[in-house]
């Protein structure tokens, strides 16, 4: 029993204004090829099939085309749920007709308890939910966080499920990263959207969508497939692909997908780029350029596009040659000292009384809130 | 073999800003009741299921709900085509899945030749087409009118069809009104969209959508079903419903539908309406008021809505008590005399030289163009 796990197709999404429909088709073609040439018993699409609640005709055409290839031509069952980007009716308006060919869509919280058995595996299809949805559904005002909402939902599913069988949860949510909560200093106060890994221990596998990095979490039974392509320059260095879970063999592997265009964020000198003196990447890649020495450039975007026609973003980088902030060890400084050196660096003066007061007041509030 | 023929649902359409989703559900409920309580072998929906190329989620929900009731719950085959208001992918994106339960959708010109047999009847599903579509499809530059386009399409269908069987064409187009072309003086130069009745003589029945009046044409074998509800104040006095064609008995009947709200255009005196002295209709009807003596009215819309909460349009009617233009027999006047009396009436003076010149020049151009 082999499950192909994918998610976050975001069909219709643009990269800095550039339509990605051809790129998306290029990626989905590779998924279809994989299914043709390998043993796949079911395809799981864990939400965010579309990028918008009201997708365009072009986006709907693309989704329908690939669902048909997988489900009708190759006759492989599909299991899918709605993500936070999906419009429910666009995804499951015709789900009653889909069932006849084993295309199963769930967008309803109330239906996540329905056991769907394919082969030796039971699937529970948990669509993306808002906290308020769960609060209203359970008529329980104490549900004020994602953690509380999912705890309640999963408790109910676990109570109903046969723990001797193989049970797979399909979800679209943000699981807390183990490392972050254990050893690393947290960078943010913590996202209210985050849900503990411990909630999912009773499932043989938890196949997720939402985070675009396939290794956003490294866990034997909890998996993100990641998105099939790079959807922002922040994702430029992420691997892209899908996962294959073999239930019987109890193995999982990541299958990479090739991009139709590379996505590259290049930092460097404008002159060396436009004089073609540096190797920045393939001519047809999608580029974000962050460049120095652009002061005297006229029409820099047009000039760049002559060499790199898919230049999508260009921004100017300030000269940071004398920027030595990184060498200061802030762990040995007080908050006030860090603030003072910041103002010194960028304003070349001491903070004013008002600035100091505002800073201290804000710090007090932050400390109060996080405790 | 009884066919229920409906069209022009225009789900999502608004009447002067008022959502009609509830009204549309009310009408469709009656169609579902009819199907439950009478013998219906197939439902034909002849285009304009939606009102917009990109329907809202609410509109899609409504359409899906009623297609499910008819096709999945009552298990009655449905045959439908796209009209000029429909987005193709919203209508037939999932048509491959629909076929399994005899829900047949066609939005493609290239597929109108495919014979679809249900019971003793062959259906040919001809979606709404643009002239340019036909020109490109046939690679024939001589196709410059709807008439030429439909002539070509129907010739091809007729060549392929078995004339000994029962053949029904489902279309979304504007058939020329027999009376107009024979006896009546044409009011307009003729719409380029119009298509001759004679093109359809080989079909046992031609079931159409596009015109909202169920008797836009009176013909034994060519039928408009009309829209299920009133979609403008111009349609206020039109009967609304659907048709039932009995193929074996060779009969057709019109089944009226009740509106959830009446649609009324009322002309009269503002004072008598707001003083509640006249019977204008039910309190909850959708109203367009065209009223006189509104000169001293303050907040007339709010005042009207207190009595008739669904007042959607209010316009002022000029006082026409002394307007005796109708008593002049213009057929005995020259164009220049008519123009002079018009200026006299509204400006109380003779036309200026410039006005006369402009009028004469324009008339010359009109006469030149119509000859």
From TrEMBL, chains A, B:
Record GO biological process: DNA recombination; DNA replication
Keywords: DNA recombination, DNA replication, Endonuclease, Exonuclease, Hydrolase, Nuclease
Pfam families with a match to the protein in the record: Metallophos
Keyword Lipoprotein applies: no
Calcineurin-like phosphoesterase domain ranges (all copies): 1-214
Superkingdom of the source species: Bacteria
A molecular function GO annotation: 3'-5' exonuclease activity
Keyword Nucleotide-binding appears in the UniProt entry: no
Family, as annotated: Belongs to the SbcD family.
Function: SbcCD cleaves DNA hairpin structures. These structures can inhibit DNA replication and are intermediates in certain DNA recombination reactions. The complex acts as a 3'->5' double strand exonuclease that can open hairpins. It also has a 5' single-strand endonuclease activity.
Quaternary structure annotation from Swiss-Prot or TrEMBL: Heterodimer of SbcC and SbcD.
Name of the molecule in the record: Nuclease SbcCD subunit D
Organism of provenance: Phocicoccus schoeneichii
């Amino acid at each position: 029993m082999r499950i192909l796990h994918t998610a976050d197709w975001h069909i219709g999404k643009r990269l800095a204004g550039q339509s990605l429909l051809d790129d998306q088709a290029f990626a989905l073609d590779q998924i279809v090829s994989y299914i043709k040439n390998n043993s796949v018993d079911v395809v799981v699409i864990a939400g965010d099939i579309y990028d918008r609640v009201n997708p365009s005709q072009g986006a709907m055409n693309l989704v329908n085309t690939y669902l048909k290839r997988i489900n009708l031509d190759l006759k492989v069952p599909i299991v899918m749920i709605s993500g936070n980007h999906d419009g429910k009716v666009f995804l499951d308006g015709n789900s009653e007709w889909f069932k006849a060919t084993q295309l199963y869509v769930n967008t309803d919280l109330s239906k996540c308890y329905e056991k769907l058995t394919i082969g030796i595996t039971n699937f529970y299809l948990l669509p993306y939910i808002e906290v308020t949805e769960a609060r209203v559904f359970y008529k329980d005002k104490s549900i004020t966080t994602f953690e509380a909402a999912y705890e309640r939902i999963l408790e109910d599913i676990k109570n109903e499920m046969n723990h001797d069988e193989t049970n797979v949860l399909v979800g679209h949510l943000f699981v807390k990263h183990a490392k972050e909560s254990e050893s690393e200093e947290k960078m943010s106060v913590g996202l209210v959207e985050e849900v503990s890994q411990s909630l999912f221990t009773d499932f043989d596998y938890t196949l997720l969508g939402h985070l675009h990095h396939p290794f956003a979490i490294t866990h034997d039974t909890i998996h993100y497939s990641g998105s099939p392509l790079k959807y922002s320059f922040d994702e430029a260095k992420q691997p892209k692909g899908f996962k294959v879970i073999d239930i019987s063999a109890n193995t999982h592997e990541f299958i990479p997908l090739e991009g139709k265009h590379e996505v590259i964020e290049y930092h460097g000198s404008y002159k060396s780029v436009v004089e073609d003196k540096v190797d920045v990447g393939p001519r047809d890649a999608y580029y974000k350029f962050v460049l120095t020495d652009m002061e005297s450039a006229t029409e820099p975007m047009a000039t760049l596009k002559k060499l790199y026609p898919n230049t999508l973003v260009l921004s100017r980088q300030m000269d940071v040659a004398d920027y030595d902030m990184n060498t200061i060890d802030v762990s040995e400084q007080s908050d006030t000292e860090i603030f003072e050196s910041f103002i010194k660096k960028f304003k070349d003066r001491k903070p004013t009384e008002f600035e100091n007061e505002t800073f201290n007041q804000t710090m007090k509030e932050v400390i109060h809130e996080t405790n």
